Amino acid sequence: MYFRVSQKSIFMKRVALFLLFGIFSIAALAQTQDAAQLYKDGKQLLQQGDYDNAIMVLNNALQQDPKNLDIQKDLAFANFLNRDYASAINVSKKIIEQPGADEQAYQILGMCYKAIAEYKQAADLYEKGIKKFPNSGVLYNEYGELLAMNKNLDKAIQYWEKGIEADPNYSSNYYNAAMYYSQSNTNLFWVMYYGEIFVNLESYTTRTAGMKSTLLDAYKKLYTQFKPEQWTSEYKKTPFALACMQVLKNSIYQIATGVTPDNLLAVRTRFVLDWYNGGLNQQFPSRLFDQWQYFLRDGMFEAYNQWIFGAAASPAQYQTWVQQHASEANAFKQYQSNRIFKIPMGQFYHQ
């Protein structure tokens, strides 16, 4: 004997299952949407500096979507900004144990360790992070800054330059390297080269304005404190820097009346002509020098040089120059706003 099920009963069961599945799907979708909205709200509060409320909202978002790494990272960062380092470390530790953890997660945890002076743990973390992300300019920079905090500058510069080589478009390594070399009168070339790359990668920040002054000071030191025959003594083991300084010596007479924005324009114009006419661009490709050549060819080199050296020498005089050369200044500004300065791999020459 068997139980006979009617076709109508089977149909009704299927309808019930379909409706039940649909209810669960809608509930899951609503939950995801709630988490997404909470995350959006939390990020907005974080950007506004309302850290307490940001943390509360992000925690609620994480309860809705506990596997979301982006929510976890922002929650850790919000706690860091709120100086609740214990909570930030707790969240960050959980993040880096997950397969999808990225270099930013290591960066946040490292900043927390540095904030509470757990330097050994920070160093161990950065070494672990660099091993996992060997091309991370962020982690090389963070490790270098940790070493600098411990007064180990000679080792710090090694990590900043490793960061430049591994990730040539991360600006902070150039900044720190240029500032490191600016502390002495030797290696002025690397102040000028790294510093100018930095202002092209990071064109409108408070660090940019400071770097422009550092660049102008480096040129002043070179021309006023050293004789031309001394220029190349520091670079005999670095062919690229040696070649640059030898070419730069060709224009020494153009600086006779002082290190001014106009005279530096003449010096650097001569450099571009000699560098490319001599074929050195093929031996040592440089995105920075390619940009110089492009600006010279398109009539923007003076505007570019004024943007760096004119602004550093005298902001008031620079504004006067902009007003008197409106078309050139506007063309350069438009170029800057529309272009992305990007350095290809393989143009690191400071071995």
The CATH architecture designation of the domain at 34-98 is: Alpha Horseshoe
**CATH superfamily of the domain at 34-98, please?**
Tetratricopeptide repeat domain
Estimate the global geometry from the Cα principal axes. globular
Low-confidence stretches: 1-32
Into which percentage range does the β-strand content fall? under 5%
CATH class of the domain at 34-98: Mainly Alpha
Number of helices: 18
Polypeptide structure, described:
The N and C termini lie far apart (89 Å). The chain is mainly alpha-helical and 351 residues long. The model is unreliable at 1-32 (pLDDT under 50). Helix content is 73%, strand content 0%.
Defining key terms:
351 residues; mainly alpha; 18 helices; 73% helix; disordered N terminus; TPR_rpt; TPR repeat; transmembrane; repeat; TPR-like_helical_dom_sf
Describe the structure in brief.
By secondary structure, the protein is mostly helical. It has a domain at 34-98: Tetratricopeptide repeat domain (Serine Threonine Protein Phosphatase 5, Tetratricopeptide repeat, Alpha Horseshoe). The chain is 73% helix and 0% strand.
